[in-house]
Write a structure and sequence with these properties.
By secondary structure, the protein is of the alpha/beta class. The chain has 4 domains: 106 residues, no CATH class; 94 residues, OB fold (Dihydrolipoamide Acetyltransferase, E2P) (Beta Barrel), CATH 2.40.50.140; 190 residues, Rossmann fold (3-Layer(aba) Sandwich), CATH 3.40.50; 158 residues, Rossmann fold (3-Layer(aba) Sandwich), CATH 3.40.50. The protein contains 24 helices and 23 strands. The strands form 4 sheets. Strands 2, 3, 4, 5, 6, 7, 8 and 9 form an 8-stranded mixed β-sheet that branches. α8 packs across α24. The longest helix has 26 residues. The chain is globular and about 100 Å long. The structure holds adenosine-5'-diphosphate and magnesium ion. The site of adenosine-5'-diphosphate has 17 residues, from α11.
Amino acid sequence: MKEKPSPAGHDTSSFILHPSSLAAKLEKLGLFTDFDLLLHLPLRYVDETHLYPIADAPIGRTVLVEGEVMDAEVKYKPRKRLTARVRDESGVLALTFFNFYPSQIKQLQPGMRLRLLGEVRPGFFGAEMAHPKYKVVRGEAPLAETLTPVYPTTAGLGQETLGKAIAKCLENLDLSDTLPVETRERLSLPGFAESVRFLHHPPPDTPQAVLESRDHPAWRRLAFDELLAQQLSMRLHYRRRHGEKAPSLPPKGALTQRLLAALPFQLTRAQARVMGEISRDLAQPHPMQRLLQGDVGSGKTVVAALAALQAVENGYQAAIMAPTEILAEQHYLKLSAWLEALGVKVAWLVSSLAKKNKQAALEAVASGEAPIAVGTHALFQEQVAFAKLGLAVIDEQHRFGVHQRLALRQKGEGAVHQLMMSATPIPRTLSMSYYADLDVSVIDELPPGRTPVVTKLVSDGRREEVIARVRDACLQGRQAYWVCPLIEESEALQLQTAIDTHETLTQTFPELKVGLVHGRLKTAEKAAVMDAFKRGELHLLVATTVIEVGVDVPNASLMVIEHAERMGLAQLHQLRGRVGRGAAQSACILLYAPPLSETAQERLKVIRETTDGFEISRQDLRIRGPGEFLGARQSGVPMLRVADLERDLDLLEAARDAAEHLLASQPGLVDKHLQRWLGGRQEFLKA
Ligand code: ADP
Ligand code: MG
């Protein structure tokens, strides 16, 4: 395993048809193989198949005209430029070049015939064309037979060179089809060769609108192929992992039943269902790779505890990892309260532990005295050795990189079962594509007795009203959070803001007890503040976004978020999830500083209008696009180049079905297809 794979997972390029001098430039475009180059599709096209009379050239479109040079001269005012006039039977066209070579002046002799490509514009003295591309024509000069592609390119790599390189690929590569005829016919998709040829060199009369709309059959064919490659590689990856061995940990009930009996509540139907799914996976002699999705507050922690106990019942250990100390600590407190009553010791491991305590925790984990360990990424550091790790639970999985998750998995003897949890629901299109290698369980129901949170947008100018509201709520025995703005540029500045806000609010509310929590506090200090808040000794808790995940204080029913316009949708949703955990009507006030950017407006509208995590995720994906949405998982994952998950949803579904079918019936085509689309990149997802 490499520490940091390059985005495409490539170390060196492997062009066969092209010299290395060209390869370096192609790499800058993210192109590493001849097939990459073949699939480098035009941005747009220009029409050099048709000559327009100067007088009839449509305005505002790049067109080809031809004319005879009348005169040419260099002018110096207002700026140095080369001007010339050409004429055809229909009229005269004035040309201007701001950058030119002395040789050009000589070239533009009266009587020369020029073929010019550019935009004709009506000017002061008739038709004009600024810096056209042109060539001198003598005798018969045939027109292009197809539209001319314009490719995305990079400095130092001209269209002509790139076009020639691609044409060479079109001529020399094996373009034979990797889809069986039945599949193509069923989906009404054209052949592969036909499709790439069409897209690089469309016939002259293809309307621009058709080429731009991206629903041309040729384009859809390539989108389908790309999605199919993704599905195939995900399926193969899934199979490979399920072929590995892991300890079988069947449900014995000795501990899980006792926990269920001791809980002050009953599992919701959704919790019971996902627990059943996890329980069955754990009983398999292959590593579980399951993603447990459930909105904030849906009760994932107890499911994690039950899964951990199933491992413990079988004599194995479980590790539960959270992305922040605050969250890890909440888990630790909750789990140790539940489990130590059953005689199951829970170790606590974070990097800020005092040496002595750390040593004790390490020993408890290494000897097996602690069957369960809860902590942060400190859990998979080198000096940590588990006696017999069987299950790794990873909360808020999207916060961890692939490497960190892998490292924890490798703490077991062989493969370890893995349960990933996420409160950021993954939209269906993504779970069908980038997450297709995981099994997914969804808790789609909240525990009873919750009341939906009311969300209000309030401009900064109305701060006083918000302050009054906080005072009222706290004096009535409720508690509130005051979340300080995210300051991405500087952690120090963010810290300072939190400290300042705390000071100001302490003065604003002399009658209330105001606490402060932020990421830089020592663990013990953090714990003391959180405890005081939980016990109701603090009315108002000023916090940085560290409270974003997991914090659970049911009596807190009001949250104020400052500069909400700076935060992302997922973050706002998580923050808001800290309230509405008890029976009282809760509210979340989003303070914002106008004017709002368009995307900020869009985000705030979404968060105000819905509390449904899946809907919020879907909107988030729409606003940000998959690249940003995927975050950590993205590293090493090639993004889609042709297909678009929203637009091509029907193709995505078809590709998923076709993948199953091809794997079963056409292994040869599968190999060829993957080679074509992913080249050396099949190994892109290993966690
Ligand atoms: P999340 O899915 O956000 O991690 P938690 O596991 O923190 O949610 O659960 C939120 C709160 O709901 C906790 O106080 C937890 O004890 C409580 N809870 C979990 N399951 C149930 C249930 N079935 N009935 C009532 N309360 C529950
Ligand atoms: Mg949680």
